[in-house]
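wait is this the right file?? whatever heres the structure
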């Protein structure tokens, strides 16, 4: 019989399961984290658990927080097991389980409770994992979306906000009024210059109602950039059964992830920070090049395999990587067109990093799905593919493969695969994307009419020509023929 996870049952868990050796009662809060999903518990909470296990930094324990209705359900699940989480690393050499205990509380899902917790002087970092699309970015200008209803509400009701950014402002305002130092705001989301984006949203919201506060924020509050990486699939019945059957644990909110993590942070924490460099995190003056490497090679690589694999009917990422044509397509696109857009990083070999990425994608234990990689293309393509394409065009480099990736996305947006099976909508703009994609059957450039995604790229003649040719090839001969043609063409 599986044992229900809780503090009381820790000592009775099966021997192979690793568990905290530190006294959780001795932990003191230092970080409030908004967005206690799988990625956070596989990444930031995991690093902190390792740090506490070493005997260091035990005044930096986590307090969870949430601002959406679904966060209340997560709070209930974690509360019943004393905020503990089972993290299973899906290493093909052998699975391992660790009970992590870095979280010691979870604030009630209520704006005033969250504001009060942020205003507590013990909290020196407020961190966020709220998805790439949660920062109120205007898709047309790439700036702050001041006209969004959430932002208009919070600007009009600064003491009764609904968004996490309104809550951050209310807490900082309260700390300033009481003479308390401001906390550092740390974005842990997977978007370029996440700290700068976060700062722009917080100060932009302040500017709407209190310009003096916006000025104070710019001078006094730190928003360090960070690069995060750990493939963390959604938890399904498959993973829950694995944890129950393999490790004898009944966990209401377990996490599975790959056995690889990377965290590179700008070292800008005026109120102090945990010494995470002692457990593998990297602190640098400028995260930019590391971030770009990851966004283009890893996230761009995910995009590259996602759409052709979905059109060919692959379900799991590792199955797609076992398809020789998909792996060859990934390697060719990366080496010919993506990696050449990157500036060197001292001590980093991009070829070695690509090999690491290929092996991570091919890990059969992860069970990551092609469907997950295809999610939210209208938000991810402009972050992971189109900037690479723009740089390649600007430098007069090869773009045929990047244009083909966009063409695969277009064909995917029709919402049927090559066998005629329906593809379920998985993008907030799914209907509009489908309309553009279907119109491209008659006019290949119709898809580029989506100015929100493509902006000025839609007018580039070289991109137009390459995209139209690739899309025609996919429509007329199919995905495999398009990949074969790219692989057989001489590298530019």
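ok assuming it is, sequence goes like this
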């Amino acid at each position: 019989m599986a044992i229900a996870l809780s503090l009381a049952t820790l000592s009775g868990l099966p021997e192979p399961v690793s568990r905290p050796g530190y006294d959780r009662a001795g932990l003191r809060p230092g970080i409030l984290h908004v967005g206690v999903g799988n990625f956070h518990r596989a990444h930031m909470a995991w690093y902190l658990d390792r740090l506490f296990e070493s005997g260091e930094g035990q005044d930096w324990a986590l307090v969870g927080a949430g601002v959406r209705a679904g966060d209340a359900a997560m709070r209930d699940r974690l509360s019943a097991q004393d905020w503990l989480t089972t993290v299973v690393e899906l290493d093909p050499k052998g699975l391992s389980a660790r009970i992590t205990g870095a979280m010691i509380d979870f604030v009630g899902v209520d704006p005033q409770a969250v504001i009060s917790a942020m205003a507590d002087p013990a909290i020196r970092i407020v961190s966020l994992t709220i998805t790439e699309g949660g920062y109120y970015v205007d898709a047309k200008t790439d700036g702050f979306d001041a006209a969004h209803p959430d932002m208009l509400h919070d600007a009009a009701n600064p003491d009764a906000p609904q968004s996490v950014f309104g809550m951050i402002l209310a807490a900082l305002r309260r700390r300033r009024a009481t003479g308390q130092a401001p906390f550092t705001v740390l974005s842990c989301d997977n978007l370029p210059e996440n700290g700068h984006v976060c700062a722009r949203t917080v100060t932009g919201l302040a500017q709407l109602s209190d310009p003096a506060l916006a000025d104070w924020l710019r001078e006094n509050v730190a928003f360090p950039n960070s690069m995060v990486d750990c493939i963390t699939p959604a938890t399904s019945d498959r993973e829950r059964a694995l944890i129950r059957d393999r490790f004898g644990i009944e966990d209401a909110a377990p996490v599975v992830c790959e056995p690889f993590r990377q965290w590179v942070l700008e070292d800008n924490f005026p109120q102090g920070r945990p010494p995470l460099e002692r457990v593998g995190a990297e602190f640098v003056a400028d995260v930019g090049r590391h971030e770009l490497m990851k966004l283009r090679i890893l996230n761009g690589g995910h995009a590259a395999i996602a759409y052709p694999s979905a059109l060919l009917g692959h379900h799991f990422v590792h199955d797609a990587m076992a398809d020789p044509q998909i792996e060859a397509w990934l390697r060719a696109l990366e080496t010919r067109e993506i990696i050449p857009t990157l500036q060197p990083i001292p001590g980093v070999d991009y070829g070695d990093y690509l090999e690491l990425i290929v092996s991570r994608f091919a890990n059969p234990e992860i069970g990551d799905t092609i469907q997950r990689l295809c999610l939210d293309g209208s938000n991810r393509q402009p972050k992971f593919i189109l900037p690479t394409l723009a740089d390649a065009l600007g430098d007069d480099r090869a773009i045929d493969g990047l244009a083909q990736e966009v063409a695969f996305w277009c064909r995917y947006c029709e919402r049927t695969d090559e066998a005629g099976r329906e593809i379920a909508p998985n993008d907030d703009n799914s209907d509009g994307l489908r309309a553009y994609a279907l119109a491209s059957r008659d006019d290949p450039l119709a898809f580029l009419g989506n100015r929100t995604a493509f902006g000025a790229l839609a007018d580039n003649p070289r991109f137009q020509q390459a995209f139209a040719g690739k899309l025609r090839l996919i429509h007329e001969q199919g995905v495999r023929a398009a990949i074969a043609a790219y692989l057989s063409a001489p590298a530019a």
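The radius of gyration is 23 Å. so i think its the right one actually
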